[in-house]
Amino acid sequence: MLLNDPSEPGGIEVVALDADDTLWHSEVFFERTQRRFTELVRRYVDHDVDVDRALFEVEHRNLGRYGYGIKGFTLSMLEAAIEVTGGAIGTVEIEQLLAAGRTMLDHPVDLIDGVDDVMTELAERGYRLVVVTKGDLHHQQHKIFASGLTDRFERIEIVSEKDPDTYRKVAASMGVAPPSFCMVGNSVRSDVLPVLEMGGHAVHVPYHVTWAHEHAQHNGDVPTLASIRELPGWLESRRGP
User: Fold this and answer.
1) Residue 158 near residue 181 (C-beta atoms within 8 A)
2) Domain 14-24+109-237's class?
3) CA separation (Å) from 67 to 35, 49, 170?
4) Where in the chain are all domains bearing CATH 1.10.150.240?
5) Tell me: domain 27-106, CATH 2.40.50.140, correct?
6) How far apart are CA 77 and CA 63, in angstroms?
7) What is the pLDDT along the chain (241 residues), one digit of tens a residue?
8) Where in the chain are all domains bearing CATH 3.40.50.1000?
9) Which of 55, 58, 167, 200 could crosslink 181 through cysteines, CB 3.0-4.6 Å?
């Protein structure tokens, strides 16, 4: 697969942004809750049982059923806990896992440093902004509205999967061709490679924790920024004359 050459003027007009771990913190809360899952479940299994691997396999198996997000993760924790312990796990621990899921859902939106300033700057420079995110519809809508960023975005797209066809539809909904579309996100697998494949621009802004399901093999030729604060300058350097 040939990657889009970011040095070639693309007339970028629409900037799409991932939400979780691009605009606000998210994966750290999943990581914290998984540590609690591991602590509770290990009480019921032999020391050589890999309970984290068991949860990963259940999550992967359930993606087509529950989709992405905290609710699906919580259901997968319960299923994995029952499965890996042979049904021995107690109701007290099950309730604690449910409570951990509720805590994640209720956690306030915590913007990543620089996001508010960057969104304001991009809007002032005339870029049209859209959120493109996976996850539970209700919860993602809640986080977007709670973020205080809603008025910066022309559209909000909550999708079941991020693939080239999805991005083509988003670009078309914004009335632009792929070369005028740029996606920004923390996942190479979901936010970068599919957009480059469909002929758009994309840039990776890494987050310090990455969900295992979002790991991707690539040749390393992926546009990457150290911080979202670098985004306006990166976009301007690639904007058509």
Assistant:
1) no
2) alpha beta
3) 22, 27, 19
4) 27-106
5) no
6) 13
7) 333 343 344 589 999 999 999 999 988 888 999 999 999 999 999 999 999 999 999 999 998 888 888 999 999 999 999 999 999 999 999 999 999 999 999 999 999 999 999 999 999 999 999 999 998 889 999 999 999 999 999 999 999 899 999 999 999 999 999 999 999 999 998 999 999 999 999 999 998 765 445 445 555 578 899 999 999 999 988 865 5
8) 14-24+109-237
9) 200
